[in-house]
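User: Structure tokens for both sequences below?

Assistant:
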Amino acid sequence: MHCGVGQFTRLLQETIEKLEPGTSATLTLTQTEGSLAEIWRAVGTAQSVVCNFPIVAWKRVMFAPLAAMAIARLRRRKVVLIQHEWNGLHWLRRITYMPALLLADTIIMFSPLVRRELANDPLLGWTAKKSVLAPLPPNIEAPAAIDDSKLRHRLITAKGDGRLLIGHFGSIYPGKQPNALLEIGAILKQRGLKPLIVYIGSFIRGVDRVEEEFHARARELDLAGDVIVSGFVASDHEVFGLFSEIDVFCYPLDEGLTARRSSILTCVQSGRPLIVAGPVLPEEFDHHPRFKELIDRGAIVLVARGSDNDAFADRIAAVVKRPLVPLPFDFDDWWKDVAEVVRAQL
């Protein structure tokens, strides 16, 4: 299954190589690749080992990354852990990642809120003292051209029928509150705005029953015919082809907007307005001036955290009347920013 953190890892390594050719290498760990002997040899050639969590296939390769970090400590290499989230993870996943926090010399995080979540952990809160903040870039760059698809034609037809297309991009899991967007869609439908909610992404398979509960809630709200779930879309050109038909993106996140939301940054590149719950912490974007600029310029529209679903519906109805104003977005510079922070820790 496609893994956003895996994609981040690949792009990070590629950017570091561009900045300083020949200084980094990757070690692939799967059920069939990356034996202990291979890990030992690879770590022996390095000065630092960098590992990213969480990964989608965590149950299949739970121990190999931890073994790599343990071998790195044993061989006196520096261990850098990049931890993308904490409280948003299922408690079983957090347990399996605890050794990584202990083994790491430095923990790179992307959100002050996530760092505070770790600091408040009763067992491992002290490890937050090892953390530094880095600015997260988007995983996907808007291509110069888009690809057509059957789903795009379906969206074009829906727009021709006067439907209001509301987008939601990325993996679908409880932390993104996918059902909350259904509630907003039900309000818009009652107002006669004919919403069609388009989830561009797929459900993450895990211990939760998020997919079954999602479809059950859609039926309860009489939205079963007003929801589309694309499933995994492999091509960036096809993704942005779907984005081109969306009227507005909406993320009613319970935790509010954080600086670790790469999917938000991908959507913004489409030039479509994006509505999201405001951040918990006023300093959430102090370390990330590029993200903050998108908010200041109105590309990302904040709704006060804790607002009811009617407030989100009101904002959607208002922003779709605005003319589209594409913003310049220097993808390479976003990646240079994070690569420089990581390089400074090696």
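Moving on to the next sequence.
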Amino acid sequence: MAASTEKILKEWLSRLDGDLPELYLVGGVVRDMLLSRTPRDIDLMCRDAESFAKRLAATRDAVVVPFEKKADEPCYRVIDRQYMESFIDIASMRGDTVFDDLERRDFTVNAIALRVGPGGASGEITDPLNGRGDLAKCLIRAAGPDAFVSDPLRILRALRFAAELGFTIEENTLAMMKSHAQLLKNTAFERILAELLKIFAVENTGVFVRMMDSLGILSLIFPEIIAMKGCTQNSHHHLDVWNHSLLVLENCEYILTHLEDFFAQASDKISENLKKDDNRLSLLKLTAMIHDAGKPGTRAVENETGRITFYGHDKIGAEIVSGIAQRLRMSGKDQAFIQGLVAEHLHILNLSHPDVRPATRMRLFRNMGDDVIPLIIHGMADISSTLGPDSDVREREAYLEWAKATVMEYYENTKKQLEAPNFVTGKDLIELGMSPGPEMGRMLREIREAQDTNRVKDREEALSLAKSLITDVNGMTV
């Protein structure tokens, strides 16, 4: 048993009086210990889990929280009130024996149990399905023929474990996943989203997205991609909409795994940006996959030139991904994040042109805040994936250079500038004779824009600008 796991068990179990029930460490904790990985959670199994959880909680200042960790499997989390990060999950044994329980689990590598004795001492390993053999072979293998029927979410879990562990999915298991893919329609979207976000969190998500696509899984979760397949584009592109989107995802991943190469000393700040919310990195890559969902519905061919156009696909795409986010039960914050990236994914490319006014750029930066950084990265991946015969290598290189310089400038100056307090407030305008109302709001935005672009450098200059915008004491503005 890993020293850290044994220490945790000792801390929890050493105070128990009397005999322990037949108690086992099971599932991912045993798998991770055998792989010399640090387990995320401590999962115990015994008969009458609720009774044992209450008994364990009574030995310290702890609370028992019942929840469903897996489908139709009640579990009890015992949480230390003084140290909320310290907890143990206890599930009831299914069947008459430990063998019965293990044979009902998802994959052989998760169907290994380790007996736990008094004080948390480790005992013998029970491995009826030779999970240790599959660990040695780096294989994900279904624990039984009904594994995916029992819980279709295991189809995504197989992909997630393969992605996180760097394992291969065994051929028969892959065939079972494909044949049972339709069962995912009966799975709660919240559970599907949780697994997807974990898959999109790994460094080589593109590989597993393509695998999901080949197995027929992806179009069940995202039916919007069906129209993207075979949707041809203009001569700036070398791929159809769907394959372009997959390439954007893969280029996005490349940038994210080589931040230092692209952004030098700003790479740490970008990493902080992408980690400030649990799902932010995953959602950026997920957005790359569906950012052009609006193209099929806006595709048109010009009569005179035969040129293919997608006018307004960014706005239509934002509406589509909003629908996807709602269907998957994303939080409002996550929904706003991906919708903003899609709505502005063309705008950010246009902002790199040298004739764009600084005020126009700063307006987007103010509206997007820190989300502008993942938006810029998405733009880098997007333009790098546009390699048709009429695409301009100079335009790609210019955007990439602009993106690098803009991100550096954002962290050195722009962010501080945007976060600085307003030089002028509504109270100031009232004192200058202006009446509250829409015109005041417009004027405050105009003065703030002047502040953001350094046209006014201090409060005195901002007040001077305000006075010049007010034409009479009645509050009319020019």
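User: Anything stand out in the second?

Assistant: The chain has four domains: 3-131, 139-203, 225-403, 426-469.
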